[in-house]
Amino acid sequence: MAEALSQQPSWWQTHKFTIARNTVYISIVIALILIPELKIIKVDIAHNESWLFGERRSLIDGLIPVIAALGFFAILVIVINMIQGRLFCGLICPGGWFAEIQEKIKRKIGKHHKLAYIFITFISTIAFAALFFNWVTDLRVFFYYTNPSFIPMWVAFLVAFPIFFWELYIGKRWCRTFCPTGIYQKLTPHFYYYKPALIPPYTTKDCGTCRECLKACPMALDPRKIALMEDTINRPGLSSCIVCGECVDACTDVWAKKGKPPILGFLHEVPVRQV
Ligand code: SF4
Ligand code: SF4
């Protein structure tokens, strides 16, 4: 059984995965804003030009690095998935981060204040869309009806808006069920070098009625069992895990209050007997 800790862990220690992944997510969102804003890479359809490291170029010149960046991210998803599963979703994808924030807002206010939740989702959808449209156009084009790109840009925005709105409105259900990148990662070869699981010799009997890791899991999984479950379409298991570590943080917090180390962690080998 767990040895008592000589010292109570700090808030940082009981939230280390939350802090680490939010730091990465926020850095990525800042980069997504700053790269086009500082004209390091920016395609500007409204002015029929592009920018590379502050230099004005033709539209085509700017498209090449944008396509290369998209290709890089596609390869990154494939490679990460073959080593550590859906880590891309739990650490890098800004869509997943926005969906997670929405999920938290929904839990807090959604049930009782549906209109307020719809309004918040509307605002976050505009912010989310602006983040991406800023890469391909000067955003002021949406207010200048004399610009030839005014109508095409509004058409593109109005097509994208309901998809983004729905994604954010349903929160993490988007990542669990509908996201094409998530579906791709589940269906293609994947491997989890580290898996969330109970640390031997613990079993679910040691948990009592806690279930805090289940409540913390954004993918609605049972982190104690998924590594040993048969993973089917109707019963999602390890292939749905985004390796976010929220379950481990939750367990660390629970056991820290008893002065003990967590019984849930990321394991390479998961012995069959432990659940
Ligand atoms: S948080 Fe820890 S103690 Fe609680 S149910 Fe999960 S594994 Fe068990
Ligand atoms: S099982 Fe744990 S690591 Fe996996 S998605 Fe759920 S909370 Fe994140």
From TrEMBL:
GO terms for cellular component: plasma membrane. One of its GO terms (molecular function) is metal ion binding. SUPFAM superfamilies: 4Fe-4S ferredoxins. Residues 71-111, 152-187, 204-251 form the 4Fe-4S ferredoxin-type domain. This is Ferredoxin-type protein NapH. The keyword Coiled coil does not apply. PROSITE patterns: 4FE4S_FER_1 (PS00198). Keywords: 4Fe-4S, Electron transport, Iron, Iron-sulfur, Membrane, Metal-binding, Transmembrane, Transmembrane helix, Transport. The chain crosses the membrane at residues 23-42, 62-83, 115-136, 142-166. It comes from the Bacteria. It comes from Hydrogenothermus marinus.
